[in-house]
Amino acid sequence: MKAVQPSTRKTSYGRLEDGREVFQFTLTNKNGVEVQVINRGAIITAWKVPDRTGKLEDVVLGFDSLAGYLKENPFFGAIVGRYANRIAKGEFELDGKEYTLAQNNNGQHLHGGVNGFDRVFWNIEEHASSKGQAVKLTYNSRDMEEGYPGNLSIEVLYILTDTNELQVEYLATTDKKTVVNLTQHSYFNLTGNVRRDILDHEVMLKCDNMVPVNDVLIPTGELRNVAGTPFDFRKPTKVGARINDDDQQLKLAGGYDHCFAFSSRGDSTANASLYDPSSGRFLEVFTTEPGIQFYCGNFLNGTLVGKNGVVYKHRFGLCLETGHYPDSPNQPQFPSTVLNPGEEYRSRSTYRFSVK
């Protein structure tokens, strides 16, 4: 690929109904890889990476303008919180006090509630980083916002390196005991500009166990070994290879919409990967988090028209949501999501693109 000058560019992306201006920052590295981010929802609106011939194309679902993101949509590209994933009946207890959240998903709490972090107005600014082109987004979530205790101060860094990595770094502090679980909710389709569904994509998840769920997709409380099941992605496997198997967990979720528990985590080897044989695009995911929610677009149904007029049909995108297990505040055997005053919530997930 022809080398370009790395840059960070700020442009207007429109205005909210209350008149506040939304900005889009375009991060470009020396290879021409481009990531675009807006401060409404901290949304990644585009992520352009090369295929095996060097052709740059967009590999995430979304919309052509702000108007699309302001309508109901399945969290395309957003930072999700204060608690990503589900909490049973929208209830949890801290130090003997009960907290009640919105029941915004089949009687359960999902992705931070009615006005979660995917819908709020973040402050955004260019950020100086030795690693590459970067933006910093900050938001102060008020005490009892969406029912969560504590004034929570959040910082998210998006850093695009010259090795085609996007590093997402999270930092949060609170003045009252609370629960925190943040994730990046991009829908990937590595065919480029969304040519078809993701059933031929090959997924690898370095996970010996998955988190089984009940009929409202809340964890049963166990970790189940994946060996000999349709959930064994320890070796790269096509998404569609076993998605229609006669398996109770697949039937409950309408496909894959499950959390997987990492056997190990960190930056040394990839925790997960995604490969599209047609384009050669290869994505590796590294994370400090204990799990990943693998969701393969089961609820996409052709009612949303996305970028370039593409209709997002069933399974036209998949998510690799790094984070803690669903319903952890109610499941003491799961890794804790409690954040105390004086502590820091720190998390990092890295998305590295290459070709094969």
Outline:
This protein has about 350 residues and is mainly beta.
Structure description:
The protein is built from two helices and 29 strands. The chain is mainly beta and 356 residues long. The chain has a single domain (7-355), classed as Distorted Sandwich (Beta-galactosidase, Chain A, domain 5). A nine-stranded antiparallel β-sheet has the order 11-12-13-14-29-23-22-17-20, with no helix packed on it. Strands 1-2-3-4-5 form a five-stranded antiparallel β-sheet, with no helix packed on it. The two termini are 15 Å apart. 47% of the residues are buried. The mean pLDDT is 97.
Query: pLDDT under 50 segments (min length 5)?
Result: none
| Distance between the amino and carboxyl termini | 15 Å
**CATH class wording:** Mainly Beta
CATH topology: Beta-galactosidase, Chain A, domain 5
| Main sheet summary | 9 strands, antiparallel
Number of strands: 29
- If helices are DSSP runs of H or I spanning 4 or more residues, what is the number of helices? 2
Q: How many domain modules?
A: 1
Q: What oligomeric state is this?
A: single chain
DSSP helix fraction = under 10%
Shape label: globular
Output mean pLDDT: 97
Q: How are the strands of the largest sheet arranged?
A: 11-12-13-14-29-23-22-17-20
Provide the CATH architecture: Distorted Sandwich
As a whole number of angstroms, the C-alpha radius of gyration is: 19 Å
Structural class: mainly beta
Question: What is the percentage of strand-forming residues?
Answer: 35-45%
